[in-house]
Amino acid sequence: MSRLIDRYDASGFDLDGVIYRGPDAVPGAAAAIAGLRDLGVKVGFVTNNAQRPPQAVVDHLNRIGIPTVAADVVTSAQAEARLMAAELPAGAEVLVVGSEALADELRGVGLAPVFRRSAATAAIVVGFEPSLTWEDFNQGCYAVQAGARYFACNNDQTRPTDQGIAIGMGGMLAAMERALPGLEPPMAGKPFRPLLDETVRRLGAERMVFVGDRLDTDIEGAVTVGLDSLFVLSGSHGKAHLAAAGPQERPTWLAWDVRGLLEEPRVAVVEGAASHCRGVTATVADGAVTLDVTPADAEGQADALWAVLTLTWAQADAGTRVNVTEVLEALDLVP
Ligand SMILES: [Mg+2]
């Protein structure tokens, strides 16, 4: 049997929805990471969250049975700090509208983080930190209006929590945009390049696959950097998001969860108005996609979904919108 991972020497992982969900591991994640390491695959954990220091991620992963050291974790704060160090003079004063962890990363690259602006403030950087106040954002705006450069770690619009969908970093940046119209801060986090470039560099990877559960950050980021990607169904996005994905948001591979890296890759072959994946065939007729069989088991439904998706995307690229509502509904095990 050939495994999906046989094609790669390294794998980068998004965390929430891929490795863990809230405090708990995604089932099978710890064994899969151990299996990859046994094969000699380089493994990196990648997060847009600029609030938690790398050690907090390390502790979390160790707690759920994934042995990890700080060098295995790449954060948007680290990538942003590297980006800023390349753009600012050594020792430049940077107003941090964000966490202590972000300030630490700036110190690490030779910049001078402060939490109160001064006449010497050369730049500001915004990073996720839920205890920030309205006044913190205002101080950042005033500094930029006074001539400071503007940087931000990531642009996630929302953040899933156990109480509901919370406002993400993107909401904070949208608020600041009202006072800083037209300014677009350089960002390191997915889907922008620097974070994944930093991961490739850190791992010394020649062929890295990136594993994620969101199309607009993980998969788009991989596409932007030219990396192959594995989309897993264990997190935020599901079949409806996939079916609607444009070329920039389409994964290379599909699996239920990270265990898919150790399994035979799911391959679909599109021929005209049909797509075949492991014995399941999706066809377009009268503007709608149908299946020849609806598998009753989870793996079979993922095969069917991959046939439907590859066909739908090929049709979209040829300028034809096809109806997938009913065929997706019939795949009742897939989120
Ligand atoms: Mg995620």
Describe this structure in words.
With 335 residues, the chain is α/β, with parallel strands linked by helices. The protein folds into three domains: 117 residues, Rossmann fold; 103 residues, 3-Layer(aba) Sandwich (Rossmann fold), CATH 3.40.50.1000; 62 residues, no CATH class. Helices cover 35% and strands 22% of the residues. The protein is built from eleven helices and 18 strands. The strands form five sheets. Strands 5-4-1-12-13-14 form a six-stranded parallel β-sheet, with helices on both faces. The protein has a four-stranded parallel β-sheet with strand order 7-6-8-9, with helices on both faces. The longest helix is centred in the C-terminal third of the chain and has 20 residues. It is globular. The mean pLDDT is 96. Magnesium ion binds next to loops.
The major sheet is characterized as: 6 strands, parallel
Distance between the termini: 28 Å
Q: Strand-and-helix sequence, N→C?
A: EEEHEHEHEHEEHEEEHHEHEHEEEEEHH
Tell how many strands the DSSP assignment holds.
18
Average of pLDDT: 96
| Beta-strand fraction estimate | 15-25%
CATH topology of the largest domain: Rossmann fold
